[in-house]
Every structure is written in C-alpha cells, then in structure tokens.
Amino acid sequence: MRNGRTGWAAAGIIGLWVAAATWRLGWPGLQFDEVLFAVWLYPTEQAARAPWIDRLMLMPYMGALKAWIYGLWLPAAGNTAWAVRLPMVVLAAATLGLIFGAVRRAVPGRAALVLLALAAGDPLYLLTSRYDWGPVVLQRLCLWGALGVLLGGRSAPRALLAGLLAGVGLFDKLSFHWLLLAAVATAALVYPRELWVRAKSGAPAAGLGGFLLGSWPVWLYRWAGRRSEPVTLETDWGALEGKLSLVRNALSGEPLNGWIAHSYLEPEMQELGPPAWLAFSDWGASGWLGWVAAVSLAALAALWLRRGEAGALRCERAAAACVIFCALAAAQMMAVQGAGYLHHWALVAPVPQLGMGFVGMALWERRRWRGWLLGLLASVLAAQGLALARQYYAIAEYGGRPAWSEAIFPLAEELRERAPEHVVALDWGIEVPLRLLSAGRLPTLAVSRDEDLRHWLAEPGDRLFVGYLPGVPDLFEAAEPRFAAAAGELGLTVEEVGRVRDRQGREIFGVWRVR
After folding, report:
1. What percent of the chain is predicted at pLDDT more than 90?
2. Is 215 in contact with 309 (CB distance < 8 Å)?
3. Distance (Å, rounded) from C-alpha 333 to C-alpha 330?
4. What's the burial of 310, exposed, middle or buried (CB within 10 Å: 0-12/13-18/19+)?
5. Is the link from the previous residue into 275 a cis peptide, with omega within 30 of 0?
6. pLDDT digit string (tens) for 263-319?
7. What sign results for the dihedral spanned by CA atoms 188, 194, 200, 203?
8. Which end of the chain has fewer CB atoms within 10 angstroms, the N or the C?
9. pTM of the entire predicted model
10. Rounded CA gap, 398 and 272, in Å?
11. Which residue intervals of 335-369 are DSSP H helices?
12. Is 348 within 8 Å of 247 (Cβ atoms)?
C-alpha cells in the first residue's frame, strides 16, 4: 500500500476512534479526579493567599500542567463536561498518530494499520482517554512524542526535544518515572547497539538538558522544601493479588465495568439485564485476552530462539520491547504501596496490544498460520468492541456511579439558584466538580475532618451543606451521619432543603441547612 493511502487509512481509523470516544461525551457526570485542576484555576480564598510555589503543583506528585492548559481553553469553551473531556480526546488521538508513526518504521503499511487498529480498539486506552481521571493522557502523549522524535534521527536538537517532552511528562505526574525507567531499560536490553550509536553522538547531553528544562517545576518545588510522602514497599500479598488481577483483566477493559457506570451484573440491576444483542459482551470482557497474551509470549520465545527473515526479526525485537517495557513498568507498580490501580495500568495502554500484534506480524512474515492469525485478529477486535459496547450500554442505561453521577449537574444548577454565602461539601469529591461547573463563582469548600465540620456548623451565615443521601455509598464513610451527629452535639437542627436526582431518577445528593 502506498504511503499516501496508508496515511489516509490511518487517519480514517483515528477518525473512527474519535467518533467512538466522543459518543455522548457529557455522560456520565464529572468525576473529581478529572477536574482536579479546578482547585488551581479557582482556588479558595486561603489557597489564593498561599505562596506561589505552593500552586506550582496541584499535589506533591502532580503538577499544574493540565490547569495551565484549561486556563486557556475553558474561558472560550465554557465549563461543561464536553469542554473538560474534548481536549483529552484530541490529545489521545494525536498519541494514536504518534503510535502509528512509530510502528510504521518497523512494519509495512498494512501491518502498521493492523497494529493501529489493535491499539485504537483497546477499551482501557479509549475510556481512560475519554475520562482522564488519572490523569494519564498527557503522560502517554509525552512518552510517544519523545519516542517519535528519537526514532526520526540522532541529532542534538531532536534529543533536546525528546528530553523536553519527557520532562514535561514527569511534571504532569511523578508516576511518569515508571514509564521513563522502563523505556530506558528496554532500550538498553533490546536495542543496545542503536543506543550506543546515539550515546556517542553527544545527543545525551542535549537530552538531559531538555529533560531538566521540561521538569524544572518539580525540582524547584522540591528545592523550596515541599516534599511528598516517602515510598513504601508493598508487603501485602492480598494487594499484590489484586494488582495481578488488574493486569490480567485490563487487556479487555474489564476492570472498568462497575467503576464508571452501574453494571447489570449488580444485584439491583440484574432484573433489567442487557439487551439480547449485547448478551455476548461477557465474552468480550471476560479477560480471555490474557490467554492470547500468554500464547503470544510463548510464540515470541520460540521465534526468538529460531530466528529468521529480516522483517520478522524487526517484529520480534519490537514485540520483545513491548513485553519488557510492560514487565518493568508493572514490576515498579507491584513493589510500591498505593500503586498499581487502574489508572496506573492505563499508563502502559495500548502497549500490550502492540506486543501481541508484533508477534502476529513476525509469524505472518514466516508465512505460517496466516488463516489462524486473521481469525484471531478478528476475534480480538470483536472482543474489544463488545467490551466497549458493554461499557457504553451501562453508561447510557444505568448512569454513573456516585463518584460519576450526572446528578452533579442539576446540583450545581440548584446551588447557583439558591446563591448561599458558602457551600460546604461533606465529600471533597463533590466540592471539586461544583467549583469547576460554577467557574469558581460558587463559594465551595470541603470538610473531611470533624473539627472543620464543627467549625463551619458553628460559624454564622447563610450556608448550605451538600452530601450523598443515606444509602448512597460515598467515598468517606458515614459522612452524612457524622454531619447529623456533629450538628446535634452543637444543639443545631438540620433542615433538608432539597434532594437531587440523577438522569435515571435516583436520589443521590441532599442539600441541608442548619439552624
């Protein structure tokens, strides 16, 4: 296939991906991690008076990069779910273009399109791009951007740009170091000769300079005495088992089921069930792709031992690089407490699919099992599509879980109409989206400590308290009962002034006043 046609075909695949990623983009509600940048754009009065160095980072391990981007975008686009999610979808689509450019250097045009389709079809990649609650989109863009620059040549300017992208990724979130260390170690193990040639060119010094330039806010923040919590080694075997389960199931997007939206597998939803056309979705999201990955590893080992044609060798090395990269990134997450959650595994997506694809390309070059390979490819793409369809069906039919509830939109509207002096959120996961949706005009704050709650209960003024209603699982256990108990201790009466429902009619949020 000619390069022009290949490019248009790749653009078509990415266009289809964008169409899938933007389906009902405003559904479900805004999850607090998606909009953490709002605490930087619209700080509380106390935070606004803090030294500027404290606002350089959203958290000790997360930079304000996303806040800078949205500070330019939201004034023109508005503070809506669409405006929050669309930029991340666009950047993730650009990353798919970078992925295509990288694999195009290892395989012919048609094969590169197959690999692009595998990457684009990964539900974990698509959904964590659409709902950037990690956040992961900017880190993946920086990783593939740096790789694409390096593959294009070994000049010092290219190394400088690649280092700059890597530094920006580290500033975006310090967990990016998992990807950086894994990528460097993978290059040393799989491409030592190429790495040595580039090292002799003097480019590493330029790359280091670019890295320091891109990540300077992190080092300045540390130099000013701000520290994050120390890393603690993982010693809980139960936690390790859970991480391994995520690794196994993440291939098909299964871990997302029941996390973003309610699932028909939940007891209260089973009587509804999925429509007949979606009955096969359990097969698509059953984690069976883990077996495909295991077979791919065995095939890669066999191919590596036997060797063969030059084209196959390129694919074998690329497949080995994918496997080693994923293994090294996973090993780092396994070893650290509090690491290895779904949005961490999403950082390596869609590299596992690329690894399996490269193994298939190596077998194809040897002209063996081509019929089986075509059937397996079709099965993988179908499984990915069914897993994604199940997610979208759950979002449309059952709506978001409490942290993603669409009730956040009517709640914000009701509070704007009531216009209290302050809105006190009993769960900080409610407060951050409210601050974003009101563009900072709604004076909100969150309380997680009992002493803070008592302070705002006793403080005079027109104040409304918002939280999840009893029976709705919240992030901080028993927040509403603690609120009622604290009011009772102070001799105050709690008056319910409103209940807010989601799109399905479920009562999610309560609004209270104390007297």
Report:
1. 41
2. no
3. 5
4. exposed
5. no
6. 765 655 555 556 655 655 555 555 566 667 777 777 777 776 666 555 557 888 888
7. negative
8. C
9. 0.92
10. 10
11. 342-345, 351-365
12. no
